[in-house]
Amino acid sequence: MPDPTCLLLLPRPLEQFILRDQAEDLLRADGVVAADPPPVKYGTFARLPRPIADRIARTTAKRLLRSLGPQRQLRALTIFHPVQWPLAQAILAAKPEAELWYGRWDRYEMAYDAGPSLRERLAELHDEAAARADLVFVASDELARLEREAGREPTLVALAADTFPALDPGRSVVAVSLGHLGRRCDWALLRAVCERVPELTVLAIGAFHEDEVSGDADAAWCRACPQIVWLGSQDDEAAARLIGCADVGIVPFKDEPFNQAGLPYRILKYARQGVRTVAPELPGVHTWDTAVTTAADADAFAEALRAHAGRRATPDLALRDWALAQTAERQNAPLWERLNALGITA
Length: 346
Description:
Low-confidence stretches: none
CATH topology of the largest domain: Rossmann fold
CATH architecture of the largest domain: 3-Layer(aba) Sandwich
Number of strands: 12
Shape: elongated
Radius of gyration: 30 Å
Protein backbone atom coordinates (compact mmCIF):
# COMPACT_ATOMS: atom_id res chain seq x y z
CA MET A 1 0.00 0.00 0.00
CA PRO A 2 1.35 3.48 -0.83
CA ASP A 3 2.78 5.47 2.08
CA PRO A 4 0.26 7.88 3.65
CA THR A 5 1.12 11.52 3.19
CA CYS A 6 0.12 14.84 4.72
CA LEU A 7 1.05 17.62 2.30
CA LEU A 8 1.70 21.10 3.66
CA LEU A 9 1.17 23.79 1.03
CA LEU A 10 3.47 26.52 2.28
CA PRO A 11 2.41 30.07 1.39
CA ARG A 12 6.09 31.08 1.50
CA PRO A 13 9.37 29.15 1.38
CA LEU A 14 9.88 27.39 4.70
CA GLU A 15 12.67 29.72 5.92
CA GLN A 16 10.37 32.74 5.38
CA PHE A 17 7.16 31.19 6.69
CA ILE A 18 5.82 32.86 9.84
CA LEU A 19 4.70 29.45 11.18
CA ARG A 20 8.06 27.87 10.37
CA ASP A 21 8.56 26.36 13.84
CA GLN A 22 5.26 24.52 13.75
CA ALA A 23 5.73 23.42 10.15
CA GLU A 24 9.17 22.03 10.97
CA ASP A 25 7.73 20.20 13.95
CA LEU A 26 5.18 18.45 11.72
CA LEU A 27 7.84 17.70 9.12
CA ARG A 28 9.59 15.46 11.66
CA ALA A 29 7.04 12.81 10.67
CA ASP A 30 8.05 10.66 7.69
CA GLY A 31 4.59 11.07 6.22
CA VAL A 32 4.54 14.89 6.26
CA VAL A 33 6.00 16.72 3.28
CA ALA A 34 6.01 20.39 2.33
CA ALA A 35 5.58 22.10 -1.01
CA ASP A 36 7.00 25.55 -1.62
CA PRO A 37 4.82 28.13 -3.39
CA PRO A 38 4.20 27.33 -7.08
CA PRO A 39 5.62 29.42 -9.94
CA VAL A 40 2.31 31.27 -10.18
CA LYS A 41 2.12 33.14 -6.89
CA TYR A 42 -0.78 32.31 -4.62
CA GLY A 43 -1.87 35.95 -4.54
CA THR A 44 -2.36 35.78 -8.29
CA PHE A 45 -5.09 33.15 -7.86
CA ALA A 46 -7.09 35.68 -5.82
CA ARG A 47 -6.71 38.44 -8.40
CA LEU A 48 -7.40 36.54 -11.63
CA PRO A 49 -10.91 35.87 -12.91
CA ARG A 50 -12.10 32.67 -11.26
CA PRO A 51 -12.19 30.48 -14.45
CA ILE A 52 -8.59 31.42 -15.32
CA ALA A 53 -7.42 30.89 -11.74
CA ASP A 54 -9.08 27.48 -11.64
CA ARG A 55 -7.48 26.43 -14.94
CA ILE A 56 -4.00 27.38 -13.72
CA ALA A 57 -4.72 25.64 -10.41
CA ARG A 58 -5.59 22.36 -12.17
CA THR A 59 -2.35 22.40 -14.16
CA THR A 60 -0.34 23.23 -11.05
CA ALA A 61 -2.09 20.48 -9.08
CA LYS A 62 -1.22 17.82 -11.67
CA ARG A 63 2.43 18.82 -11.64
CA LEU A 64 2.54 18.86 -7.83
CA LEU A 65 0.87 15.45 -7.46
CA ARG A 66 3.28 13.93 -9.97
CA SER A 67 6.19 15.22 -7.89
CA LEU A 68 4.91 13.27 -4.87
CA GLY A 69 5.38 9.99 -6.73
CA PRO A 70 3.14 6.94 -6.94
CA GLN A 71 4.38 5.64 -3.58
CA ARG A 72 2.48 8.37 -1.78
CA GLN A 73 -1.18 8.19 -0.75
CA LEU A 74 -2.50 11.68 0.01
CA ARG A 75 -4.36 11.51 3.33
CA ALA A 76 -4.36 15.17 4.31
CA LEU A 77 -3.75 18.49 2.60
CA THR A 78 -2.95 21.58 4.69
CA ILE A 79 -3.32 25.20 3.64
CA PHE A 80 -2.62 28.33 5.62
CA HIS A 81 -4.28 31.10 3.62
CA PRO A 82 -7.48 31.40 1.55
CA VAL A 83 -5.50 32.32 -1.59
CA GLN A 84 -4.34 28.69 -1.54
CA TRP A 85 -7.88 27.37 -1.84
CA PRO A 86 -8.02 27.24 -5.70
CA LEU A 87 -4.94 24.99 -5.78
CA ALA A 88 -6.19 22.95 -2.83
CA GLN A 89 -9.55 22.53 -4.53
CA ALA A 90 -7.86 21.24 -7.68
CA ILE A 91 -5.76 18.77 -5.68
CA LEU A 92 -8.81 17.53 -3.78
CA ALA A 93 -10.69 17.03 -7.05
CA ALA A 94 -7.97 14.55 -8.01
CA LYS A 95 -7.64 13.14 -4.48
CA PRO A 96 -11.15 13.36 -2.97
CA GLU A 97 -10.28 10.89 -0.22
CA ALA A 98 -7.85 13.38 1.34
CA GLU A 99 -8.79 15.51 4.31
CA LEU A 100 -8.40 19.28 4.10
CA TRP A 101 -6.77 21.04 7.03
CA TYR A 102 -7.16 24.81 6.98
CA GLY A 103 -5.05 26.97 9.29
CA ARG A 104 -6.33 30.44 10.13
CA TRP A 105 -3.77 32.55 12.00
CA ASP A 106 -5.08 35.96 10.94
CA ARG A 107 -8.13 37.74 9.53
CA TYR A 108 -6.88 37.49 5.97
CA GLU A 109 -9.96 39.11 4.50
CA MET A 110 -9.26 42.28 6.51
CA ALA A 111 -5.64 42.68 5.32
CA TYR A 112 -4.40 46.27 5.20
CA ASP A 113 -2.96 45.88 1.70
CA ALA A 114 -6.19 44.50 0.22
CA GLY A 115 -8.71 46.78 -1.45
CA PRO A 116 -12.47 46.28 -1.20
CA SER A 117 -12.74 43.89 -4.16
CA LEU A 118 -9.83 41.74 -2.98
CA ARG A 119 -11.22 41.64 0.54
CA GLU A 120 -14.51 40.40 -0.86
CA ARG A 121 -12.70 37.71 -2.86
CA LEU A 122 -10.65 36.63 0.16
CA ALA A 123 -13.80 36.34 2.26
CA GLU A 124 -15.35 34.16 -0.45
CA LEU A 125 -12.27 31.92 -0.67
CA HIS A 126 -12.13 31.66 3.11
CA ASP A 127 -15.76 30.57 3.38
CA GLU A 128 -15.29 27.94 0.67
CA ALA A 129 -12.10 26.56 2.20
CA ALA A 130 -13.50 26.51 5.72
CA ALA A 131 -16.73 24.83 4.57
CA ARG A 132 -14.77 22.05 2.85
CA ALA A 133 -12.20 21.63 5.62
CA ASP A 134 -12.24 18.55 7.81
CA LEU A 135 -10.13 20.48 10.31
CA VAL A 136 -10.06 24.23 10.80
CA PHE A 137 -7.32 25.21 13.24
CA VAL A 138 -6.97 28.76 14.50
CA ALA A 139 -4.32 30.73 16.36
CA SER A 140 -6.46 32.68 18.83
CA ASP A 141 -9.61 32.48 20.91
CA GLU A 142 -11.08 35.36 18.92
CA LEU A 143 -10.53 33.58 15.61
CA ALA A 144 -12.17 30.54 17.18
CA ARG A 145 -15.16 32.66 18.17
CA LEU A 146 -15.52 33.96 14.62
CA GLU A 147 -15.46 30.42 13.23
CA ARG A 148 -18.04 29.23 15.73
CA GLU A 149 -20.17 32.23 14.81
CA ALA A 150 -20.01 31.00 11.20
CA GLY A 151 -21.23 27.57 12.31
CA ARG A 152 -17.92 25.76 12.39
CA GLU A 153 -16.11 24.12 15.29
CA PRO A 154 -12.42 25.07 15.11
CA THR A 155 -9.43 23.65 16.94
CA LEU A 156 -7.17 26.07 18.79
CA VAL A 157 -3.53 25.69 17.72
CA ALA A 158 -1.72 28.69 19.14
CA LEU A 159 1.66 29.92 17.91
CA ALA A 160 5.16 28.67 18.76
CA ALA A 161 8.51 30.44 18.51
CA ASP A 162 10.96 27.61 19.18
CA THR A 163 13.80 29.03 17.06
CA PHE A 164 13.52 32.63 18.29
CA PRO A 165 16.40 33.40 20.66
CA ALA A 166 15.55 33.30 24.37
CA LEU A 167 18.26 35.31 26.11
CA ASP A 168 18.72 34.73 29.82
CA PRO A 169 17.53 38.00 31.41
CA GLY A 170 19.42 37.13 34.57
CA ARG A 171 22.77 37.03 32.79
CA SER A 172 22.40 39.37 29.83
CA VAL A 173 24.65 42.41 29.52
CA VAL A 174 23.60 45.33 27.33
CA ALA A 175 26.35 47.71 26.30
CA VAL A 176 26.02 50.83 24.17
CA SER A 177 28.52 52.44 21.83
CA LEU A 178 27.75 55.99 20.69
CA GLY A 179 29.70 57.66 17.95
CA HIS A 180 32.31 56.82 15.34
CA LEU A 181 32.25 53.31 13.92
CA GLY A 182 35.24 53.13 11.64
CA ARG A 183 39.01 53.35 11.75
CA ARG A 184 39.17 54.51 15.39
CA CYS A 185 37.49 51.35 16.68
CA ASP A 186 39.44 48.39 17.93
CA TRP A 187 37.44 45.77 16.08
CA ALA A 188 39.72 42.98 17.28
CA LEU A 189 38.97 43.99 20.87
CA LEU A 190 35.22 44.18 20.25
CA ARG A 191 35.28 40.78 18.57
CA ALA A 192 37.29 39.25 21.42
CA VAL A 193 34.87 40.67 24.00
CA CYS A 194 31.83 39.34 22.13
CA GLU A 195 33.44 35.91 21.95
CA ARG A 196 34.20 35.97 25.68
CA VAL A 197 30.75 37.28 26.68
CA PRO A 198 28.14 35.45 24.56
CA GLU A 199 25.37 36.99 26.70
CA LEU A 200 26.49 40.46 25.58
CA THR A 201 24.37 42.71 23.36
CA VAL A 202 25.98 45.86 21.96
CA LEU A 203 23.76 48.71 20.78
CA ALA A 204 25.88 50.41 18.12
CA ILE A 205 24.65 53.97 17.58
CA GLY A 206 26.32 55.82 14.72
CA ALA A 207 27.15 55.52 11.05
CA PHE A 208 29.26 52.54 10.08
CA HIS A 209 32.13 53.73 7.87
CA GLU A 210 32.64 50.79 5.54
CA ASP A 211 35.27 52.68 3.53
CA GLU A 212 37.47 53.06 6.62
CA VAL A 213 37.57 49.36 7.52
CA SER A 214 37.68 47.68 4.12
CA GLY A 215 39.70 44.50 4.38
CA ASP A 216 39.56 44.39 8.19
CA ALA A 217 38.51 40.82 9.01
CA ASP A 218 37.60 41.69 12.60
CA ALA A 219 35.36 44.55 11.47
CA ALA A 220 33.65 42.22 9.00
CA TRP A 221 33.14 39.66 11.79
CA CYS A 222 31.61 42.32 14.04
CA ARG A 223 29.39 43.55 11.24
CA ALA A 224 27.92 40.06 10.87
CA CYS A 225 27.77 39.29 14.61
CA PRO A 226 24.17 39.04 15.91
CA GLN A 227 25.32 40.31 19.32
CA ILE A 228 25.91 43.75 17.81
CA VAL A 229 22.72 45.61 16.88
CA TRP A 230 23.53 48.27 14.28
CA LEU A 231 21.19 51.21 14.89
CA GLY A 232 22.75 53.78 12.57
CA SER A 233 22.82 57.49 13.25
CA GLN A 234 20.26 58.73 15.77
CA ASP A 235 19.36 62.18 16.96
CA ASP A 236 20.22 63.15 20.53
CA GLU A 237 16.73 62.44 21.91
CA ALA A 238 16.70 58.90 20.50
CA ALA A 239 20.33 58.26 21.47
CA ALA A 240 19.69 59.28 25.08
CA ARG A 241 16.79 56.85 25.34
CA LEU A 242 18.82 54.05 23.83
CA ILE A 243 21.66 54.71 26.27
CA GLY A 244 19.10 54.46 29.07
CA CYS A 245 18.31 50.91 27.89
CA ALA A 246 21.93 49.81 28.47
CA ASP A 247 23.81 48.52 31.51
CA VAL A 248 27.08 50.11 30.50
CA GLY A 249 28.65 52.33 27.87
CA ILE A 250 31.80 51.40 26.00
CA VAL A 251 34.62 53.25 24.26
CA PRO A 252 35.95 50.57 21.86
CA PHE A 253 38.91 52.65 20.66
CA LYS A 254 42.32 51.43 19.54
CA ASP A 255 45.20 52.09 21.91
CA GLU A 256 46.94 54.51 19.54
CA PRO A 257 48.38 58.04 19.93
CA PHE A 258 45.35 59.70 18.33
CA ASN A 259 43.01 58.07 20.87
CA GLN A 260 45.29 58.04 23.91
CA ALA A 261 45.13 61.75 24.66
CA GLY A 262 41.48 62.38 23.89
CA LEU A 263 38.51 62.66 26.21
CA PRO A 264 35.65 60.82 24.48
CA TYR A 265 32.49 62.91 24.63
CA ARG A 266 30.36 59.78 24.92
CA ILE A 267 31.54 59.20 28.50
CA LEU A 268 29.66 62.27 29.68
CA LYS A 269 26.64 61.44 27.52
CA TYR A 270 26.45 57.97 29.06
CA ALA A 271 26.86 59.40 32.56
CA ARG A 272 23.96 61.83 32.05
CA GLN A 273 21.76 58.71 31.88
CA GLY A 274 23.40 57.19 34.98
CA VAL A 275 25.42 54.76 32.85
CA ARG A 276 29.08 54.09 33.58
CA THR A 277 31.72 53.59 30.87
CA VAL A 278 34.21 50.78 30.25
CA ALA A 279 37.19 51.77 28.10
CA PRO A 280 40.66 50.50 27.19
CA GLU A 281 43.57 51.84 29.22
CA LEU A 282 43.71 55.20 27.41
CA PRO A 283 45.36 57.97 29.45
CA GLY A 284 42.89 60.66 28.42
CA VAL A 285 39.83 58.92 29.80
CA HIS A 286 41.21 59.14 33.34
CA THR A 287 40.16 62.81 33.29
CA TRP A 288 36.74 61.43 34.12
CA ASP A 289 37.73 58.56 36.43
CA THR A 290 34.45 59.16 38.27
CA ALA A 291 32.61 57.74 35.28
CA VAL A 292 35.08 55.28 33.75
CA THR A 293 36.40 51.78 34.41
CA THR A 294 39.48 51.00 32.32
CA ALA A 295 40.50 47.55 31.16
CA ALA A 296 44.01 46.50 30.14
CA ASP A 297 42.96 43.71 27.76
CA ALA A 298 40.00 41.79 26.36
CA ASP A 299 39.69 39.56 29.44
CA ALA A 300 39.55 42.55 31.77
CA PHE A 301 37.11 44.32 29.44
CA ALA A 302 34.81 41.29 29.46
CA GLU A 303 34.99 41.04 33.24
CA ALA A 304 34.15 44.74 33.60
CA LEU A 305 31.12 44.39 31.33
CA ARG A 306 29.82 41.40 33.25
CA ALA A 307 30.17 43.37 36.48
CA HIS A 308 27.59 45.84 35.12
CA ALA A 309 24.97 43.24 34.14
CA GLY A 310 21.49 44.39 35.13
CA ARG A 311 22.48 47.96 35.99
CA ARG A 312 19.99 49.31 33.45
CA ALA A 313 17.32 48.63 36.06
CA THR A 314 19.19 50.66 38.69
CA PRO A 315 21.03 53.54 37.00
CA ASP A 316 23.75 55.29 39.01
CA LEU A 317 21.96 58.43 40.16
CA ALA A 318 25.06 59.83 41.87
CA LEU A 319 26.92 59.49 38.60
CA ARG A 320 24.04 61.19 36.81
CA ASP A 321 24.18 64.09 39.28
CA TRP A 322 27.92 64.38 38.69
CA ALA A 323 27.38 64.45 34.92
CA LEU A 324 24.63 67.06 35.11
CA ALA A 325 26.99 69.26 37.10
CA GLN A 326 29.53 69.27 34.27
CA THR A 327 27.90 72.29 32.66
CA ALA A 328 29.47 74.50 30.02
CA GLU A 329 29.64 77.34 32.55
CA ARG A 330 31.47 75.18 35.07
CA GLN A 331 33.87 73.73 32.53
CA ASN A 332 34.56 77.20 31.12
CA ALA A 333 35.42 78.65 34.55
CA PRO A 334 39.12 79.17 33.73
CA LEU A 335 38.16 80.93 30.51
CA TRP A 336 35.65 83.15 32.32
CA GLU A 337 38.34 84.12 34.81
CA ARG A 338 40.58 85.21 31.94
CA LEU A 339 37.71 87.08 30.28
CA ASN A 340 36.89 88.86 33.47
CA ALA A 341 40.55 89.80 33.89
CA LEU A 342 40.34 91.43 30.47
CA GLY A 343 37.24 93.34 31.55
CA ILE A 344 34.81 91.17 29.58
CA THR A 345 31.78 90.03 31.57
CA ALA A 346 28.58 88.15 30.83
